[in-house]
Prior knowledge:
- The chain is mainly beta.
- The chain contains one helix and six strands; from the N terminus they run ββββββα.
- It has a single domain, classed as predicted glycosyltransferase like domains (Thrombin, subunit H, Beta Barrel).
Amino acid sequence: MAMGAQLSVTNLRRAARHPVDVPVIAEHQQRGDIKLHVSNISAHGFMVDGAPELDRGDRVIIRFPVIGRIEAYVIWMRDSRAGFQFERIIRYDDFMTMIDTLQPNPRLRRSR
């Protein structure tokens, strides 16, 4: 029986990513609150740079505008960057409203 995060990465990497510049505090079960810097986000997950030491499969709880608290799992680590997958897909209208909040410069938003 499989235990832990059920990570499905392969087909989600093609999702449109939106550049953002968002410092957040995430809740980690063993490390407590950790500071992360989200540099891009999609409806399936997000990437951070300057990531603290995390391991693949680590779970964090993070808060974003519009969608509120959501769990995410580390799916990859490279140098000081880490990719996270949300535990659920964010609804399209909520996601686009969140992007408008996180990226107020319309020139940096992807076309819809």
